[in-house]
């Protein structure tokens, strides 16, 4: 059995920088037409100069592939109207992190709905710049995303022409909030379609499944699956593939992030096939994103075949999702 995906897009990826970027960026550019690159470097991508330099460094290791890095800038209080006008044509979204909520978010915002931030939202709305948000509060870990929902609702209501993406949603509450506002959208990762907190910590602790937001309950996973499998037009695939070196995961103080990039399309195909919804996979991994973000992706066709593939134990010094396991689909050709 074979299956083709055209112009796949990953609308949430962490490429990092230097050797880690050199290792992981080609593993995405190989199979995807484009990916939305997160700005949480140390220090983050804050302005046009940072963005252009980072984009060049990514292109230097992905130019062998037909691939576009779609760039983001880190949301901060210095985003004046002038700065936004300057970056408008170079960014696909601006990414807002609440301070201290996840990896390298210490430069994030402390008060989401401050007057300064509202002025930035208003300017972004005027200029047609999209806003991506890591939607978690600092509350009890299982409640963080659900408790963030009122912030999404307030921003969506007050700025009805601002397109807001709820990044990597993990809860039924987020799935239910999505359709309340026409300007709210969402991305969903691969791991959150498969795992729950039980897989992470129900028996032996699995550091390579630990990410932010943490995987939740069965009913949450099922709500996300339903959205993805239905090809819901406001939802796109965003892997949130977040590599960390093995020593930073297998230690006391495990870094958050699951590295899924090299097997994302294969496992998505397996999930959609198992659920008899292969006809909606193209929407989830490409056409929805094209219309939400207004993209014109590179032309690329991935032919997958139903042939077992053993996931490597490591890519460089990074342990991937499903390391050592056998998955049902393989990449056959890329053209
Ligand atoms: O698990 C995560 N890892 N969640 C994030 O929001 C950030 C990411 C990272 O950069 O490692
Ligand atoms: Zn992320």
What's the SSE blueprint?
Blueprint: E1 2-6, E2 9-13, H1 18-29, E3 34-37, H2 48-62, E4 68-74, H3 81-87, E5 93-96, H4 115-127, E6 130-133, H5 144-158, E7 164-166, H6 172-178, E8 184-188, H7 191-194, H8 197-201, H9 218-229, E9 235-237, H10 246-249, H11 264-274, H12 281-293, E10 301-305, E11 309-310, E12 326-327, E13 330-334
Parallel strand pairs: 2-3, 3-4, 4-5, 5-6, 6-7, 7-8, 8-9
Antiparallel strand pairs: 1-10, 10-13, 11-12
Helix pairs in contact: 1-2, 5-6
The structure holds (4S)-2,6-dioxohexahydropyrimidine-4-carboxylic acid (DOR) and zinc ion (ZN).
Zinc ion binds at residues 12, 14, 38, 240, 242.
Outline of this structure?
The protein has 335 residues and is α/β, with parallel strands linked by helices. Helices cover 35% and strands 16% of the residues.
Uncertain segments are none
**CATH architecture assignment name:** Alpha-Beta Barrel
| Lateral arrangement of strands in the main beta sheet | 2-3-4-5-6-7-8-9
Secondary-structure-based class equals alpha/beta
CATH hierarchy, class? Alpha Beta
Strand content: 15-25%
Can you describe what's shown?
The protein has 335 residues and is of the alpha/beta class. The protein has helices at residues 18-29, 48-62, 81-87, 115-127, 144-158, 172-178, 191-194, 197-201, 218-229, 246-249, 264-274, 281-293; strands at 2-6, 9-13, 34-37, 68-74, 93-96, 130-133, 164-166, 184-188, 235-237, 301-305, 309-310, 326-327, 330-334. Strands 2-3-4-5-6-7-8-9 form an eight-stranded parallel β-sheet. Helix 1 (18-29) crosses helix 2 (48-62) and helix 5 packs parallel to helix 6 (172-178). The radius of gyration is 19 Å and the shape is globular. The two termini are 18 Å apart. The mean pLDDT is 97. (4S)-2,6-dioxohexahydropyrimidine-4-carboxylic acid binds next to loops.
